[in-house]
Amino acid sequence: MMFQTQPFNALTIPIERTNLIEASAGTGKTYGIAALFTRLIVLEKMAVERILVVTFTKAATAELKTRLRARLEDALEVLETLTPGIELIRHDTDYQALHTLYRQYRRQEEAPDDFIFKLLAEALKKENLPRLVIRLKAAIADFDSAAIFTIHGFCQRLLRDYAFLCQVPFDTELTEQNDERLLLPAQDFWRTRIANNPTLARLVYEHKYTPQNMLASLRRFLNRPHLNFRRPNADLDKIEAELHTCWQDVRNRLPELIRIFWNVRPTLNGNSYRESTFKELFAELQYAADNGLIPGDSKGKLADLDAEILQSKLKKGQTANHEAFKQLHILAELGRLKTAHEEAATAVLTALQIDMLVYLNQAQAEYKKSNRERDFDDLLIDVHNALNESPLGHTFAKTVAENWQVALIDEFQDTDPLQYGIFRDIFIRHGNPLFLVGDPKQAIYSFRGADIYAYLQAAKDAEYHYTLDINYRSHTALVDGISALFNQKQRPFVLEDLDFAEVRAQRNESRLDPPQNVIRIRWLHGNETEAVSKEVLRRRAADYCADEIAGILNQAETGRLNFQGEPLQSGHIAVLVRTHNEGHMIAGALKARNVQSVLIYHDSVFAAEEAAALAALISFWLQPQRTELLRFVLSSVLFGFTAADLHTLNQSEAELSEWIHSAETAAQQWQQHGFYAAMQAFSSRHGIETHLLASGNERSLTNYHQLLEKLAEEDEQSHTPAALLQWLQAQIQSAHSGKSAKSNILRLESDEALVKIVTIHASKGLEYPLVFCPFIWDAAKNTPDDWQVLHTPSGGTELLAKHQLDSSNEQQLADETASENLRLLYVALTRAAEQLTIYAGYCNNTPDNTFAYLLEGTPQTSREDTAAAYMAERKSNKAAGEMQMFYRNWQSFVQKHPDSGIALCNDIPPPAVYHANNSTQGNYQAHILPERIFEFIRHTSFTGLSRTTPAHDYEYSELQPTLDPAEAGLSNLPVSGTDTAEADSIFDFPRGAAAGICLHELLEKFNFNLSAVEQTELIRTTLAKHSFDAEYWYSSIASMLEHTRRTQLTGKYALADIPTKQRLPEMGFVLHMEDFKLPHIRTWLAQDHIRLPQVCIDAAALLDFSDVKGFLNGFIDMVYQDSDGHVCIIDYKSNHLGNSSNDYSAENMDTAMAEHHYYLQALIYAIATARYFKQRGRPLQTVAVRYLFLRGLNNNGNGVWSWDIDTADLAPWL
């Protein structure tokens, strides 16, 4: 950037206006921010809560908090050390004198750096030492109130503290983005816009569009208020009508037109009108005519039958047959209309997708508003809107600006127009000092929405520009070598305002012994003169890299290569890659050479293959008859079966039956003891962990354990098996779309000092002594995606489909892609502290390679000229010439810097296997831990308690996931009455988890004050949503709902009599319990005045769970209060007790309540309800409990299980 810059000095920089601080790699950005923050406290006398510090990740926030506090503590420690010599300190004492005095008191300890002493020397000129100590102690004591936030945390704070000025509600819930929630409005859009439009329906079918894949392509453009659209307009119906009319004319005259063409062809240029080409064209037209189709034009030859083109293609000496040319012109018109139709169809599909994007934004906004939810992106949008669209915007900005005296913004290169706009509106426009710290050369997160143009705009807006110009990471030769590479070009990052800032190294010498070449360029082709395929080159790069690393470690093992005086270790080496496939390729090559490595990715564990394998395994447990799921699981990484192993399994009915029985057992254990216990037992039985350990697959073992923990945590939320499987599948889908939660990031498989394989994006901010870049020669894809965000000259952004791009747009996008690739290259090369190894090779896309651009021609040679030079060489001398051109450019670069420690190596690294020195192995014995007795806080529920109770005599009739065994239709209660239900009656309604979930959802949404007929749409929609035939089941479900709303429950009151405001559906609770003990519960239940049926008292003897000392949680289907003040608990049960209402008698319901221990659930619900009213100052006399067995309700008392509890009896738990 062509701005006047000066070196950054935290002690002297003016605290005013807008300041841009460029912090190149390794120059101590965090140190500089901490120094400036300390100065603001010590010298400028600001309070910690009046200084705003913003960064872009939680990890960076945590690091900043630690570093900033540490600097304040350093300053305080120096002052307290100097206190005994206070009489020696005058207002003009310089920092060196302070340092000398400090050393007199702290001889044995390392002193803080000079900055602290210089800062204190300046402060002591204005303030006496005791007062300064008091202020520093106060600042440290108040540090918890320091305003250090992520960008989202900052916006959340603004919305919370200034809710009235922002005009946002107080009680919103912050949630992570949910792709499942987006799919529903996408499907709604599909139904409303496409399902009833035959033209659109045909188009999306022909182009294989679905709500899912259209959503996936648009997902990253949601919630971007600055993004404009260029919506195309096309009259597809009109063009289709013209095309049909034209084709009808052609079809009627086709034999004649074909004859005319062959008559005139001898007069035409033979190369332009080849016989074979036009035979194929006319055959295509004839096939379409015979089959009633619109023809294609696969080779675009219809246009060549235009009368003017035919005239221009006449052979010399031939006379034009104008009448024939006029007749043939209709075929050219057909071609033109066919092309116009294709263009119109593309435009219509583009408009459709833009409309869907707008619809999704609106639907999401409405959903979040009605449900009082916001996600992280919304926080920024809400603040932006409050500043720019609210009448209180100016007052809001002014109030915030007055709250913080100065703002320090870290990692500013990762900003976007929305974020920068917020800081500009609050701080720049109100004249507050603003410090924007970042490195545009490391702006590599455009795929996350970061926008380099927002940084460049901020650079233009800033009054002062500074640079951190000392590199503390690398030594002089390495810093100078990397600078030399980028200084090959006037525009090293292609974009006009993005320059390379020069830095100098703090240290001159390498810490490797003996000294090595600091930058090694490994030419992958050796002495080859012909190019090889990219795949061969990739394999060669992995092998060469692994051989070099193994050789280096062998040298270190024998004392021939040291780092900082000690033998170099595996942990000192990093291999940087762009993709996971590259990482796995390197890991495999290293493993083959006995070198252990660790893969470090910032990706979701749910994107790993182990997640898909576990999802298939759970599906198999629930549906053991689907043996294709078993084969998938067995062939996965968890078991590693080969094709031969699967063939053997297919031939053995006994072995297959054993696996099915194992799945059934696991499903039963899940029901009784939870998912984790079932998984542990299954894994132990079949040796999953043993297999992963034996194969040395530490990555998979780590993923497997992490996934089990995630599933166990989710299972604790009382999920049914079906719901847990659905949750896992949703997590996998979100992970593959790049929207998984940060808490799901892959763990490291080892903490050992192993060779680190790191993606370049994940390596940003890190450093390694030795860095290898084996695949950096492979140019990234340079073809535009289906959608592109284009930056306009006015500073805005516009979303364009690929077909909307013109040549200038394509050129601009190519420049931006090249710039990001060059920035990614800069990040990769600057990770090295001691030595850098670059692998260079030639492939078809080498003209797009970053090195090709940097090395070609003069400093003024542009990216376009570079590509043109390579293409000209390829045209003249084929691929071999292009490869030699690339090699000559590398040679020329190295020759320009003869004494720089840069070496071009075209030899083949000798094959190597690492021989680690393991001679000092000891005899290890497990440590025997002393027995400990301790209590832990439990967090459980009725489901958790009932799981630990032994199973009864009834058997599972199916292994489908369940709500609870009875609600899934699994009860073994004797069935009296008729043997079969009436056709399509409620007794005939399917059993199982799906039916139970459907009925519960319907009852949750049902308005009991309205008849079922008035809610027909709700009934039909809910049935269809859960895959039940709405037409077939409507009448029986409507009848059941009418019985439910009309059945009297408390006195004369039915649910239909209870106003909506007196009903609380799905009441959640968390009860703290100190003494929920089984013996006490049994005794309590058996008391006569409790009025519990004897069969339930007897069943309580079968309960078996540990004393609950902690929390009980759950959800009550409904709690209501009638007009007489009576409070009633409602719980819906879809259990099938028989095929007539008489089967739902009090006796049969008592048995069902006992068998499934629902009486315990009812007791917990009663305690929760009584506490709820007591804590609100409205204690109850009694709590009525009504369990509604939905299939048996008939307004004559059947189907209602009743238990009235005096709250005085609940006193032990209230």
Topology (elements, then pairings):
Blueprint: E1 5-7, E2 18-23, H1 29-42, E3 51-55, H2 58-82, H3 95-105, H4 114-123, H5 129-141, E4 147-150, H6 151-161, H7 163-166, E5 173-174, H8 179-195, H9 198-206, H10 211-218, E6 227-229, H11 236-264, H12 275-290, H13 307-312, H14 322-371, E7 373-374, H15 376-388, H16 393-403, E8 406-409, H17 417-428, E9 434-438, H18 452-461, E10 464-468, E11 470-475, H19 476-486, E12 504-507, E13 512-513, E14 519-523, H20 534-557, E15 562-563, E16 566-567, E17 573-577, H21 580-592, E18 597-600, H22 609-622, H23 627-635, H24 643-651, H25 653-673, H26 675-686, H27 688-694, H28 698-715, H29 721-736, E19 755-759, H30 760-763, E20 768-773, E21 787-791, E22 797-801, H31 807-829, E23 832-840, H32 850-855, H33 863-896, E24 902-905, E25 938-941, H34 942-947, H35 993-1005, H36 1016-1025, H37 1030-1046, E26 1048-1050, E27 1053-1054, E28 1063-1076, H38 1078-1085, H39 1094-1099, E29 1108-1121, E30 1127-1133, H40 1146-1155, H41 1158-1175, E31 1182-1189, E32 1200-1206
Parallel strand pairs: 1-10, 2-9, 2-10, 3-4, 3-8, 5-7, 6-22, 8-9, 11-12, 14-23, 14-24, 17-19, 17-20, 18-19, 20-23, 25-29, 30-31
Antiparallel strand pairs: 13-15, 15-16, 21-22, 26-27, 28-29, 29-30, 31-32
Helix pairs in contact: 1-2, 2-5, 3-4, 6-15, 8-14, 11-14, 15-16, 15-17, 20-21, 22-23, 22-29, 25-26, 35-36, 36-37
Region (Nuclease activity, interacts with RecD and RecA): 936-1214
Domain UvrD-like helicase ATP-binding: 2-475
GO cellular component, one term: exodeoxyribonuclease V complex
